[in-house]
Design goal:
Blueprint: E1 2-6, E2 13-18, H1 25-32, E3 38-43, H2 44-58, E4 65-70, H3 79-91, E5 99-104, H4 106-118, E6 124-129, H5 132-138, E7 143-148, E8 151-158, E9 163-167, H6 176-193, H7 195-203, H8 205-209, H9 213-233, H10 248-257, H11 264-281, H12 287-298, H13 311-317, E10 331-336, E11 339-344, H14 348-361
The structure holds nicotinamide-adenine-dinucleotide.
The site of nicotinamide-adenine-dinucleotide has 30 residues, from helix 2, helix 4, helix 5, strand 8 and helix 6.
Length: 363
């Protein structure tokens, strides 16, 4: 079992990573949250596949508790779902001292975190991520939110969890496409961290797909640890935290134009490719560097296919990105492993060219 401590105000919290860590959850509740009323928001599909483990553990929890099951789709990441959660919490008489628990992937984590941030002006919550993507990224750092129309995560709040439990057992029921999505975010972390992590990830790509516990433990811990450093320094994304958006300006546009037909993690991989082509176009990296970075993305090619893109629509969609200022698109670009440039601007033609090269890479 690995532990990463995230040192944020008002309360630091621990991310616990490993096989069977969910078994420690009742003891954590007993020691840190005795007597608290619990409200679980659970991913419906995941629950069906893991009800044995979950119900078994629930029977060990003595706190007063209630739950709601939600279908995890981007279409459900809305005000309607938020209202359903709040209404059920109200009817269950949840007070200010209740503890909300998100048990699911990034969609459940984001909407639950936002529900906790806004119920009675903010109550505590815990993240129990059940997808690889949520383990390495969305469950840590306190970004919560929902979509509005086609704009992703446009409504939200920063609200840090009180604890995060990443139990590798949940990954057993996750399909390969979702594993690949999580690996897309790990790829991002490998570029952000250093060449050692990149090489390790490249070498162990197939072991991760096959859910090798030791390798998963390492790559999840490395990714979470990188995110921890960034979040501790810049919790509210006024500067450094923007590095986590590497590839995401393109990815969010791809997701919104294709109305969520392409998954976030897949869009991130495509977005990384486009951002590397843009780095090359702006002479921030050499041809050799580009080739090196694409080596890892090449491993994803068998698992990702993009719908034939309308580049002008993608370009237009990028203007809704939250990082933009004065209607100018701002990119996060890689200069080298661990060397990231923020707020880079580019000409429309350069961006279109990078998008074309990036999408052709996955044909
Ligand atoms: N808050 C953040 O910092 C942050 C960071 C990255 C991504 N996100 C958000 O995360 C979301 C994507 O998260 P995700 O990739 O986890 O997707 P998700 O929550 O949609 O889950 C993917 C699918 O896996 C199913 N599932 C979940 N756990 C399962 C399990 N153990 N076994 C079987 N099926 C399971 C879900 O029902 C769903 O069908 C996006 O909405 C994205 O915007 C947020």
């Amino acid at each position: 079992m690995n532990k990463v401590s995230v040192n944020v105000k008002p309360k630091p919290y621990e991310v616990v990573i490993g096989k069977n860590v969910f078994n420690h959850f009742p003891a954590k509740l007993k020691s840190d949250f005795p007597e608290r009323q619990l409200f679980f928001v659970i991913d419906k599909k995941m629950y069906k596949l893991n009800s044995g483990i979950i119900d078994g553990l629930f029977s060990k929890i003595k706190n007063k508790k209630s739950k709601i099951l939600i279908s995890a789709t981007e279409k459900n990441k809305t005000y309607d779902t938020l209202t359903r959660i709040h209404r059920k919490m109200m009817r269950a008489n949840c007070g200010r001292d209740c503890l909300v628990i998100a048990l699911g992937g990034g969609i459940i984590g984001d909407v639950t975190g936002f529900a906790a941030a806004t119920y009675m002006r903010g109550v505590d919550y815990i993240q129990i991520p059940t997808t690889l993507l949520a383990m390495v990224d969305s469950s840590v750092g306190g970004k919560t939110g929902i979509n509005l129309d086609t704009a992703k995560n446009i409504i939200g709040a920063f609200h840090q969890p009180r604890a995060v439990f990443c139990d590798l057992n949940f990954l057993r029921t996750l399909n390969r496409e979702e594993i690949i999505c999580g690996m897309g975010e790990i790829a991002k972390y490998s570029f952000l961290t250093n060449k050692t992590f990149y090489d390790y990830f490249l070498r162990n790509f197939d072991k991760i797909i096959n859910l090798n516990n030791a390798v998963l433990n390492k790559v999840i811990s490395e990714s979470v640890n990188y995110k921890r450093c960034v979040v501790e320094e810049d919790e509210k994304e006024s500067g450094l935290r923007k590095v986590l958006n590497l590839g995401h300006t393109f990815a969010h546009a791809i997701e919104s134009v294709y109305k969520h037909k392409i998954k976030h993690g897949q869009a991130v991989v495509a977005g990384l490719a486009m951002s590397f082509y843009l780095s090359a176009e702006l002479n921030l990296i050499s041809e050799n560097q580009l080739r090196e970075y694409l080596k890892l993305l090449d491993k994803f090619r068998n698992y990702i296919s993009l719908p034939s893109p309308d580049f002008n629509r993608l370009y237009k969609a990028m203007h809704i990105d939250k990082k933009n200022r004065l209607n100018k698109i701002r990119f996060v670009l890689l200069k080298d492993f661990g060397n990231i440039l923020l707020d880079v601007e580019a000409e429309k033609q350069q961006v279109l060219k990078a998008m074309r090269s990036g999408s052709e890479f996955f044909v």
